[in-house]
Amino acid sequence: MPDARIAHIVVVEDNSGDVYLLERAIESRNIAYELIRYQDGEQAIRALSADPAAVPDLFLVDLNLPRREGFDVLRAVRGIPRFVGVPVGVLTSSEAEKDRHRTALIGAERYIHKPPTLEEFIDQVGTAVENLLALRPGDGD
């Protein structure tokens, strides 16, 4: 990934503390980024459906959200043609195998369980974001 490229990352997460940790994890990988945050599923679905020009480099979605759950957001993202090829990561506290399976069926590329310690969060989430960004269209060179 060229150093000058800014990664546009949509995060759907209601917990401000987790968003803060996500930013630290991204910064630990020296990734230039712009974070577009939605705090609930309904807000995310409406905004993503409304702007026909906006195509981010990555979606990160929590499953447990107010108003509409993360599964609804995943289905909406995968149902919008302009988002074909944009990687989706699920960043959640759920360890349920049924949730992991369900997100894979909907089309998420990565299921990231929120690690319990700060160091693990920064390391594991930073690595996951870096790997997901490598999947975005145009990064195959």
Question: How would you summarize the topology of this molecule?
Answer:
Blueprint: E1 7-12, H1 16-28, E2 33-38, H2 41-50, E3 58-61, H3 70-78, E4 88-92, H4 97-106, E5 110-113, H5 118-133
Describe this structure in words.
The structure is a single chain. The protein is of the alpha/beta class. It has helices at residues 16-28, 41-50, 70-78, 97-106, 118-133, and strands at 7-12, 33-38, 58-61, 88-92, 110-113. Strands 2-1-3-4-5 form a 5-stranded parallel sheet, sandwiched between helices. Helices cover 41% and strands 18% of the residues. The model has no long low-confidence stretch (mean pLDDT 91). Helix 1 (16-28) crosses helix 5 and helix 2 packs parallel to helix 3.
Q: Roughly how many Å apart are the termini?
A: 8 Å
Strand order of the largest sheet: 2-1-3-4-5
What percentage of amino acids are in beta strands? 15-25%
> Globular, elongated, flat, extended or rod-shaped: what is the shape?
globular
Q: What letter string, H or E per element, gives the SSE order? A: EHEHEHEHEH
What is the number of helices?
5
Instruction: State the helical fraction.
Output: 40-55%
Cα radius of gyration in angstroms: 14 Å
Structural class: alpha/beta
Low-pLDDT stretches are: none
